[in-house]
Write a structure and sequence with these properties.
With 72 residues, the chain is mainly alpha-helical. Helices cover 89% and strands 0% of the residues. Helix 1 crosses helix 2 (39-71). It is elongated. The two termini are 23 Å apart.
Length: 72
């Protein structure tokens, strides 16, 4: 049941992550040499990042969980 609540907590964090990406990209746009982008573009970029990083995080979590269960 804990996994369900973790998944439910990830939903709002998606929107917060998108918003923060939009803010930081706007603040650093001149220094980095990019054009500022809106919230929808930020959401698409966040989805891409999450889809890329989530499997890696899951694999690491699975490995550490199996190592802990073998020790105990």
């Amino acid at each position: 049941m804990r996994d369900f609540f973790k998944l439910a907590a990830a939903g709002p964090m998606f929107f917060v992550s998108s918003w923060m990406l939009m803010l930081f990209a706007g603040a650093l746009a001149k220094n980095v040499g990019i054009l500022p982008f809106g919230y929808v573009t930020s959401m698409v970029a966040t989805i891409g990042l999450w889809l890329t990083i989530a499997p890696a995080i899951g694999a690491v979590a699975r490995l550490t969980r199996s190592k802990k269960s073998k020790k105990g």
